[in-house]
Design goal:
CATH topology: Rossmann fold
Oligomer: single chain
Number of strands: 7
CATH class: Alpha Beta
Order of helices and strands: HHEHEHEEHEHHEHHE
Number of domains: 1
Helix content: 25-40%
Strand order of the largest sheet: 3-2-1-4-5-7-6
Radius of gyration: 17 Å
Strand content: 15-25%
Number of helices: 9
Length: 241
């Protein structure tokens, strides 16, 4: 896996090409989380999505009035994003060819766990943010869940809450909130370890399983479990200023 780290772009391209993004339970849940975070802003501005894959988050940003730029290491993923009308460019999370202090919002959703030099990638997120700008980060969590499935997906680590906070604060970002998702589905990765192929990570799930996971995600939103161990961590941070 190149250390610039596209987010499992083989799977993302397949999902986008088949029109499955709207059906996959986790793609839907991640969009719902992002949409909720956008409500915190008084007005849309300029956003960059680093490790954007096929551009699903960038398209959502556009639907909410943001001017979104998508960056991904994989030229094929960038081509898919452009085909969907996204302003997308090939780029490395560690060396963003973007001006400093140019964005009100920076996204890195399930990216950093693919990047060997994660500190450099986070420093780049901080650099391109305007003073007072927000970075929203999500990562695969908890090395206790590590398996060959992570290796096949190109991950080099999973994060604990403390390690993620230290990483973000080390880049000078102020961590406003960290929360878990995937608390109720935490047993699922172990149950699905037999599906080892990287190509299967976002392959169509059986409709019954996909539906059950969607229900569990909806239920989880209403439960006070965001400090519990899950499968994913989200962090909202701000550049001082």
């Amino acid at each position: 896996m190149p250390s610039g780290g596209p987010v499992d772009t083989i799977e993302v391209r397949r999902v986008a090409g088949r029109g499955l993004e709207d059906a996959n339970w986790w793609c839907r849940e991640r969009r719902a989380i992002l949409a909720g975070e956008l409500l915190r802003f008084s007005a849309p501005g300029a956003a960059v999505d680093v490790g954007a894959g096929a551009g699903a988050a960038a398209r959502l940003l556009g639907e909410h009035g943001w001017h979104a730029t998508a960056i991904d290491l994989d030229p094929d993923a960038v081509a898919v994003a452009r085909a969907h009308g996204v302003e997308a460019y090939v780029g490395d999370a560690r060396y963003l060819q973007l001006p400093g202090e140019g964005f009100d919002l920076a996204l890195a959703l399930e990216v950093l766990e693919h990047v060997e030099e994660d500190r450099r990638a986070v420093a780049e997120l901080a650099r391109v943010l305007r003073p007072g700008g927000t970075a929203l980060v999500s990562v695969a969590s908890d090395m206790a869940l590590w398996s060959a499935r992570d290796v096949s997906a190109g991950r080099v680590r999973r994060y604990g809450r403390r390690g993620l906070v230290e990483l973000l604060e080390g880049a000078g970002l102020l961590v406003e909130r960290v929360w878990s998702r995937g608390v109720l589905v935490r047993p699922v990765p172990r149950l699905l370890r037999h599906r080892m192929s990287r190509r299967d990570d976002l392959a169509p799930l059986h409709p019954a399983l996909n539906g059950a996971l969607r229900v569990s995600a909806a239920v989880e939103r209403r439960l006070p479990v965001r400090s519990w161990p899950g499968t994913c961590l989200f962090a909202r941070t701000r550049r001082p200023g």
